[in-house]
């Protein structure tokens, strides 16, 4: 094998297959064997980079050998690489080049019927859709049977398909280049390609793409769909939903007659039987020509199917029932972060201790009373209360002033943050990522039954998907449709893995309120065809035109981008709505009453204890003091039962008071 291509270039090779069996007695020719101008013209037309000559060495005559040698020399002088390979190696060479370059141009010269038989045999062993063919009928045989075949054939004997590109030149006269293809592998089609002559070269070739020229299928297509699909609906001969509108437009544009076939599931790979099930299996076995629905593009499916251009790219999400709006009991603490709360608690604990150290040497009170008093003062400052007596010492004034400013700032910030938490009733999600969903472990995991997502979960080696598989329901219990998936979410504690396009296709007909979290994956949804289908190219060409002309976007806007009109409703505030405030208010009053009762009990107990320790008290005989009495002020500490009138004229003694009554 001779490798002469640089992998950096996407090049088209001209492979000239010269399998010409010339009888030594056959010398008459109606056309010259010098096809170099035609080869060079096609080289310029397709911008090829090399020519591969193939012939049977056993039947190669001296004349043909000389001709091939001269052609290689002439083409090489023009800077084009070339070589000669036996035609028996063509199948191997085509398989090699199919994975290396885009498309070669194969030129096959037919001189006799035996050459045509060789070409028919080759067509059954190689992919006729991969290369671009140039078939030259020389008309050099003794009879004109090959010329008649070239001009009048109507049978597909060369395994042609809809996307086969085969250029044919028939016996020099007329100097027209035709193209041959087939509609469905059976119906033969012939069309005009261009003109060629030695003087002018190739002319009149349509510069548009193949599918712009070959713009209609004009044949029936077998189309499979899933009955419970939300992307495709078929009822009473009419197509609906997103892909239904696209397919309906395609059938009109390409003149396709749809032959519909229903399937119950999308299909997965059965490892035991090594086969595919459902709609995917029907397309894989070529029981149908196309499959429509929300078919996800995966690596495994791309190996056995052809996908059209993506119709929509949608993010995959995990949907679950929206939690009920709950009271934000923790909102009183969420207003500040944990760091700020720790600083505030530290200030309330440490500052009273600092004030106690400052006061302890100047106060005759018990230390426990000083500490309690300072803690009450500090707590009152943070509750926006003032001091009953502002201290005289400068050090204490600085401490209290700093606390007052700090408490004011913290109170203002706390009030603003608290209002925002209490004013808005937020839905607190139980998890916000797949990792948290796995850690929660209380929800069942749902995917569509017999879908690509099921295969992803089942066979994936990714750690997160392995954990999700443990939470997934058993296969018989998985939802068979998108609606069933969302229905299970509403009646059970479950989460449904689906694309956003599937959710939007439900048209908001959910049994309950649904919310979601992002998963980071995207689904590419497209139509599917059998591997190397002849219709893949023309469908992609037409879908590309739909996209350029806005038709595809029109269908997306119609089915997926519906904007709901939100009506602002203002509900009356209920008892439940203000429950946190009422609880705080009621709790404060209750706590104050409890403190009051405790204080009364403590004072009553202290008074009772003091009375018990002093012994019994003898009632005072008031009559004894009714007329007069006297006592020394500084020398005695007698109990005084009432008010006395003091005579300021004498500083040491009190004169008798008459008519005194306590």
Tell me what you see in this structure.
It is a single chain. The protein is α/β, with parallel strands linked by helices. Among the domains are: 12-207, Rossmann fold, CATH 3.40.50; 331-423; 578-617; 618-662, no CATH class. 38% of the residues lie in helices and 20% in strands. It contains 21 helices and 21 strands. The strands form four sheets. It has a nine-stranded mixed sheet, with helices on both faces. Helix 5 links the parallel strand 5 (132-137) and strand 6. The longest helix is centred in the last third of the chain and has 36 residues, at 579-614. The chain is elongated and about 150 Å long. Residues 1-30 and 616-662 have low confidence and may be disordered.
Give the tags.
662 residues, Rossmann fold, 8-stranded mixed sheet, disordered C terminus, ligand-gated monoatomic ion channel activity
Largest sheet: 9 strands, mixed
CATH architecture of the domain at 12-207: 3-Layer(aba) Sandwich
CATH class of the domain at 12-207: Alpha Beta
Tell me, briefly, the overall form: elongated
Which quaternary structure do these chains form?
A: single chain
The helix content, as a percent range, equals 25-40%
Q: Secondary-structure map with pairings?
A:
Blueprint: E1 12-17, H1 36-46, E2 48-55, H2 62-77, E3 81-86, H3 90-98, E4 105-110, H4 113-123, E5 132-137, H5 145-152, E6 165-170, E7 176-182, E8 188-197, E9 201-203, H6 210-213, E10 219-226, E11 233-235, E12 238-240, H7 241-253, E13 256-263, E14 269-270, E15 275-276, H8 278-284, E16 290-296, H9 299-302, E17 305-307, E18 312-321, H10 331-334, H11 338-359, H12 367-382, H13 394-423, H14 434-440, E19 444-446, H15 452-459, H16 463-471, H17 482-491, E20 494-499, H18 500-505, E21 514-530, H19 536-548, H20 551-559, H21 579-614
Parallel strand pairs: 1-2, 1-4, 2-3, 4-5, 5-6, 10-13, 10-16, 19-20
Antiparallel strand pairs: 6-7, 7-8, 8-9, 11-12, 14-15, 16-21, 17-21, 18-20, 18-21
Helix pairs in contact: 7-20, 11-12
């Amino acid at each position: 094998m001779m490798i002469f291509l640089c992998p950096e270039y996407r090049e088209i090779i001209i492979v000239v297959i010269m399998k010409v069996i010339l009888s030594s007695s056959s010398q008459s020719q109606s056309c010259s064997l010098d096809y170099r101008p035609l080869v060079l013209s096609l080289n310029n037309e397709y911008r090829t980079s090399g020519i591969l000559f193939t012939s049977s060495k056993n039947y190669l005559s001296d004349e043909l050998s000389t001709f091939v040698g001269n052609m290689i020399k002439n083409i090489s002088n023009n800077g084009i690489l070339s070589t000669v390979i036996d035609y028996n190696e063509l199948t191997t060479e085509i398989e090699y080049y199919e994975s290396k370059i885009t498309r070669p141009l194969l030129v096959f010269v037919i001189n006799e019927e035996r050459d045509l038989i060789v070409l028919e045999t080759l067509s059954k062993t190689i992919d006729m859709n991969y290369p671009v063919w140039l078939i030259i009928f020389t008309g050099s045989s003794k009879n004109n049977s090959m010329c008649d075949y070239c001009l009048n054939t109507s049978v597909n004997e060369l395994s042609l398909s809809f996307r086969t590109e085969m250029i044919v030149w028939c016996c020099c006269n007329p100097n027209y280049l035709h193209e041959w293809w087939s509609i469905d592998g059976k119906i033969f089609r012939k069309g005009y390609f261009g003109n060629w002559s030695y003087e002018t070269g190739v002319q009149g070739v349509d510069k548009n793409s193949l599918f712009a020229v070959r713009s209609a299928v004009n044949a029936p297509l077998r189309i499979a769909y899933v009955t419970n699909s939300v992307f495709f609906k078929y009822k009473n001969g009419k197509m609906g939903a997103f892909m239904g509108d696209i397919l309906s437009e395609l059938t009109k544009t390409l003149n396709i007659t749809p032959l519909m076939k229903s399937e119950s599931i999308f299909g997965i790979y059965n490892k035991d039987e090594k086969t595919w099930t459902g709609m995917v299996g029907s397309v894989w076995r070529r029981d149908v020509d196309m499959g429509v629905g929300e078919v996800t593009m995966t690596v495994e499916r791309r190996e056995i199917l052809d996908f059209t251009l993506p119709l929509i790219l949608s993010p995959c999400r995990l949907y679950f029932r929206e939690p009920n709006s709950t009271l934000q009991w923790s909102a009183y603490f969420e207003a500040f972060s944990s760091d700020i709360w720790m600083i505030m608690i530290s200030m309330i604990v440490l500052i009273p201790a600092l004030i106690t150290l400052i006061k302890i040497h100047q106060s005759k009170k018990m230390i426990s009373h000083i500490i309690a008093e300072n803690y009450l003062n500090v707590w009152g400052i943070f509750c926006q209360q003032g001091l009953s007596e502002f201290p005289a010492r400068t050090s204490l004034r600085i401490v209290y002033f700093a606390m007052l400013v700090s408490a004011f700032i913290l109170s203002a910030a706390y009030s603003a943050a608290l209002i925002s938490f209490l004013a808005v009733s937020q839905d607190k999600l139980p998890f916000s990522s797949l990792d948290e969903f796995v850690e929660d472990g209380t929800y069942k995991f749902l995917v569509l039954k017999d879908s690509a997502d099921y295969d992803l979960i089942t066979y994936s080696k990714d750690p997160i998907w392995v954990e999700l598989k443990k939470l997934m329901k058993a296969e018989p219990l998985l939802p068979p449709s998108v609606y069933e998936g969302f229905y299970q979410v509403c009646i059970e504690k479950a989460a449904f893995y689906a694309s956003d396009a599937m959710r939007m296709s439900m048209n908001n007909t959910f049994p309950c309120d649904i919310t979601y979290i992002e998963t980071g994956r995207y689904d590419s949804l497209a139509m599917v065809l059998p591997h190397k289908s002849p219709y893949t190219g023309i469908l992609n060409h037409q879908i590309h035109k739909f996209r350029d002309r806005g038709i595809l976007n029109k269908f997306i806007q119609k089915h997926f981008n519906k904007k709901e009109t939100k009506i602002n409703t203002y509900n009356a505030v209920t008892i439940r709505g203000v429950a946190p405030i009422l609880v705080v208010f009621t709790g404060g009053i209750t706590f104050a009453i409890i403190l009051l009762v405790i204080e009364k009990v403590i004072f009553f107990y202290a008074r009772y204890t003091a009375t018990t320790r002093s012994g019994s008290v003898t009632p005072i005989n008031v009559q004894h003091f009714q007329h007069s009495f006297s006592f020394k002020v500084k020398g005695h500490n007698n109990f005084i039962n009432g008010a006395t009138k003091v005579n300021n004229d004498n500083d040491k003694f009190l004169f008798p008071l008459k008519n005194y009554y306590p």
